[in-house]
Amino acid sequence: MPGWLPRAFVLALGLLAAYQILTWAFLRVLGLLLNVLIAFFLALAMEPAVAGLARRGVRRGPATALVSVVLLAAAAGFFGALGSLFVEQVSRIVENLPRYVSDVLSWSNAHLHTDLDVDRLRSRVIHSDWARGFLRSGAQNVWGISATLLGGVFQLLTVALFTFYFAAEAPRLRVALCSVLPPARQAEVLRAWEIAVAKTGGYLYSRALMALISGGAHYVFLQLLGVPYAAALAIWVGVVSQFVPTVGTYIGGALPLLIAFTVDPWTALWVLVFIVLYQQLENYVLQPRITARTVDIHPAVAFGSVVAGTSLLGVVGALVAIPATATLQGFLGAYVKRYDVPGDTDGPRPWRKGHKGRERHAGSRSREGHEGSSRWWRRGR
User: Fold this and answer.
1) From residue 14, how far is each of 1, 6, 17, 20, 21 by CA, in Å?
2) Which comes out higher in pLDDT, residue 284 or 358?
3) Distance between CA 262 and CA 228 in Å, rounded?
4) C-alpha 163 chain-centroid distance
5) What is the pLDDT of residue 24?
6) Rg of the Cα atoms in the chain
7) What is the Cα–Cα distance from 322 to 328, expressed in whole angstroms?
């Protein structure tokens, strides 16, 4: 046996064991890494506001706390408005459920010649094996639902804690990262950091401003039409239409359209007309002006980035896909040199004119050469 073979065998086993251990550890801490990734992008989004307060004399810790409180209040208002809308609709359905069931049974007895009674049907449903099994399974799933809620709360607290530390200690974090790099690399890292902060924060703030304008416009119009829950519906339309790419406009407009249809079909038609007209105003007037100094991502690119992020990281990938794409687009705009193109696909094509001119010039020279050779051949004869 060669002397190197046992050492190679031991080395291969050691590498395999190290790979298995690292894979196991990575899968164990994958949830923590995803939470840190979300916190990092949230800190990048908060950095312009925190830095602005710091330049006005506020320490970074209290400035970060103030910005965090404002963001939490906005999130609480959004979910509170939607929660009140959901609870009100569910309570209304539960309150009117006996009447709905009575109407259905009356229609069935009148048209289908059945003999159904509400009291008898209620007693059969309550004492049925299906109802007992449903209640038993629901009681067993209470602990599972409670554990899921507690896990979600713990993840939110983890993201909030890391976001606060990243935003409050951003200068120290940059110094710690750059201290292990040579001076040339430090300049590149600091430039990349500034681009990430500017593009991520600018994109999110521009979207927040457009969501505020959209929510205000829809609230005024829904209030004028007398559509119920105008405030909650306006908040829903503003947030979903701006922060969900491509399909957010349709998802956000579907709910107020449905609520307006319960009031009156003509009211729903007016709501539809307003949504379409406002989208045209937003796409051609508001969005170019607001996003002129930030990254304006094409809807197809935004949708593709969300699909790719969801495929790679699930819900977390969908959340960080657009900020990551905005940062990447900022990197490309800063490091990639672009050149002017003489014309486009729908405009004039000067290169084709020059090409045809060269072809004509070359053709005339070939014809002149051919005629000259013919004259020389005739003189020779």
Assistant:
1) 20, 12, 5, 10, 10
2) 284
3) 10
4) 19
5) 93
6) 33
7) 10
In the numeric block, the tokens 């401003």 are attached to 209
Distance CA 204, CA 192 (A): 18
Locate 81 and state its tokens. Answer: 């408005």
- Report pTM: 0.65
Instruction: Return the higher-pLDDT residue of 209 and 322.
Output: 209
Q: Evaluate if residue 11 carries a pLDDT over 80.
A: yes
Compute the distance between CA of residue 37 and CA of residue 26 in angstroms, rounded to an integer.
15
Please give the Cα distance from 199 to 331 (Å, whole number).
9
Find where tokens 């289908």 sit. 112
C-alpha–C-alpha distance, residues 76 and 239, integer Å: 13
Q: Which residues of 84-113 are buried (b: 16+ CB within 10 A; e: fewer)?
A: ebeeeeeeeeeeeeeeeeeeebeeeeeeee
Task: Count CB neighbours of 246 within 10 A.
Answer: 16
244 three-state secondary structure? coil
Residue where the block lists tokens 């951003």? 170
Return the structure tokens found at 348. Answer: 């004039």
Q: Do residues 317 and 41 lie in contact, with contact meaning Cβ atoms separated by under 8 Å?
A: no
Q: What is the Cα–Cα distance from 191 to 333, expressed in whole angstroms?
A: 13
Angle separating helix axes 30-55 and 183-225, nearest 10 degrees: 90
- Identify which of 175, 262, 260 has the alpha carbon closest to the alpha carbon of residue 224: 260
